Amino acid sequence: MKLTFAPVALFLALATPAFAGSDVAADPATPAQLSADDVADRVQAFYDKTLTFQADFVQHYTIKAYNRTKDSQGKVAFQKPGKMSWRYTTNGNRVVADGKILKVYEEENKQMYEQPMDQSQYPAALAFLIGGGNIKKSFNLHLLDAQRLGFSGGYVLMGEPREPTPAYQKILLYVDAKTSQVRRVMLMDAQGNRNGFDFTNPVVNKKPSSDEFAFSPPKGTKVIRP
Q: What is the DSSP letter of 224?
């Protein structure tokens, strides 16, 4: 079975980056007891002052019905307001937004989905990361048992979108207790599929190259617009 994404689903799946630490294991020290709103406020404050972000990423996409997982990796860059770039080193795929147009290029199928960002299902999970948006206003929040989830020393914040989206039902943010950075993200949809991201080697507030958020597909690519 070939694992592919519909354009909107792919955009939303890739729209939850984390400003990660050097690994995904939290510090073993016991974190202070905070409420879900307290943790969200700390995360929000960190991202509000972050203008750019670059990192390596590993993606684990699991299809529950087939019990299959597809692993991918690459590099990601974000710049406020509204710009992002995903370079998949495993399959040649690209996801690029220049603040106005979203492009999702699939190397295997030689096709690219293109859509104005204001016409796409712009996810609240992404909005506060690339300019605008607020975690508490976008999600109903709950704290999960971080130790039970293998993230002792940090917080696991579960968010349910206040405005339902077909792309996912829940988002888990694994938050470092010391820095308030999100080290891991997990998206879960109604079918039980999971899309997880781990981020390493982060570089914050260093401007990416000027052409990072521009992309022209190879000659012969089929361009699909809504």
A: E
Whether residue 19 has pLDDT greater than 60: no
What pLDDT, on a 0 to 100 scale, did the predictor assign at position 152?
Answer: 84
| Amino acid at residue number 48 | D
Return d(Cα 175, Cα 22) in angstroms, integer: 13
Q: Token digits for 117?
A: 């960002």
CB burial of 133-171 (b: ≥16 within 10 Å; e: otherwise) equals: bebbebbebebeebeeeebbbbbbbbbebeeebebbebb
Q: What structural domains and CATH numbers belong to the chain? A: 7-224 (2.50.20.10)
Phi, psi of 127, deg, nearest 5? -55, -45
* DSSP tally for the chain: helices H, then strands E: 4, 12
Quote the pLDDT of residue 200: 85
Which residues, 6+ apart, have CB-to-CB distance to 206 below 8 Å?
Answer: 52, 54
End-to-end Cα spacing for the chain: 26
Residue 98: what pLDDT?
A: 92
Q: CB count, 10 Å around CB of 72?
A: 17
**Confidence category of residue 202, pLDDT binned at 50, 70, 90:** confident
Question: Distance (Å, rounded) from C-alpha 34 to C-alpha 38?
Answer: 6
Q: Is the pLDDT score of 115 beyond 50?
A: yes
- Angle 58-40-47 (CA atoms, 0-180°, nearest 5)? 60
Q: Using CA atoms, how far apart are residues 178 and 169, in angstroms rounded to an integer?
A: 28
Mean pLDDT, residues 7-22: 43
